[in-house]
Amino acid sequence: MTVKRHYANLYLVQSSPVNDEFEANLEKERALYPRYVEFPGPEGEPVAADLHEPVDHSVLDDAARNPRRNAYWLYTRSNSRYQTLTFGDERSVRNSNFDANKETIIIAHGWINSGNSEPNPTVRKAFLDQKDVNVITVDWRRLARSGYVTAASGVPAVGEAVGHFVNWLHTAFGLRYENVHLIGFSLGAHLVGNAGRATGGRVARVTGLDPAGPLWNYNRKRLSATDGVYVEAIHTDGGYTMGGLGIGSAIAQVDFFPNGGISQPGYMTNVCNHNHAWALFAATVTHNHLQGNRCSNGLQITLNNCRGELLSMGNSDLRKTGNRGSYRLDTKRRYPY
């Protein structure tokens, strides 16, 4: 099934958000987790996700028919209150503070949240305090606030729509792909992966903050190493066995496993460990101080005896490069960690 869309005189063909492969893998994915897992809610509180719920096809069909319903909120140093950019409406961009010559940071939240939720406020402030950039928050709450299984199955289509939004900014306003950094937390990490894929992998950076694990271990539409010029993932609640909120395996070009990637200092719950990914990343945008050693295998990560070359985790360098592989680092309990 395909759905044709018209945006600013550009015809795009978008695949249905529900596909046979996703549904075929559901039982295999569900076998890796308990039925109920708790993700962070709008205030960081635990919210239970039912991995056995049926897919709500009416919500997904609406997401496929109306991908413009993603909201794009622009923040710059000239406006502390967001300005709404409307996909296909050039006036909304021209009447805003968007500057296509500046670096553009695009941030996507996770399940059950909105553009007002973390990591958006903290990561946005870190970037704007450091650089004069465009920061665009993707508010995809219409789908994100559905059941977890429904939201997860619709993430590829929503991410593709975000990628087409970037393509439109490139075509209509001259935004250079090499000036774009896509950042997503939890389900949002897979969303921005699909967004980068929709640009042909041309965006400068894609950063996945503890990419969601449930329903993504066998999912070929998860964040991948080819979604951007440089693709990095930070794993804080995964490890090498299933069961954490984050995916435990290396899936990007460069994968960082702070404190081993399973649990974080001072935290006792999966929700806190999961959230720590965006807190660590924001700290590196400000301080660029956390470095990991490259590891030869997963056992080295577990035993904390990685001795390979050093690479900075996170940060805001759009031209960042690093040898592919997994990196381990240890952090402190208190900011800036």
UniProtKB/TrEMBL annotation:
<feature type="domain" description="Lipase">
    <location>
        <begin position="72"/>
        <end position="306"/>
    </location>
</feature>
<dbReference type="InterPro" id="IPR000734">
    <property type="entry name" value="TAG_lipase"/>
</dbReference>
<dbReference type="InterPro" id="IPR013818">
    <property type="entry name" value="Lipase"/>
</dbReference>
<dbReference type="Pfam" id="PF00151">
    <property type="entry name" value="Lipase"/>
</dbReference>
<keyword id="KW-0964">Secreted</keyword>
<comment type="similarity">
    <text>Belongs to the AB hydrolase superfamily. Lipase family.</text>
</comment>
<dbReference type="InterPro" id="IPR029058">
    <property type="entry name" value="AB_hydrolase_fold"/>
</dbReference>
<dbReference type="InterPro" id="IPR033906">
    <property type="entry name" value="Lipase_N"/>
</dbReference>
<protein>
    <recommendedName>
        <fullName>Lipase domain-containing protein</fullName>
    </recommendedName>
</protein>
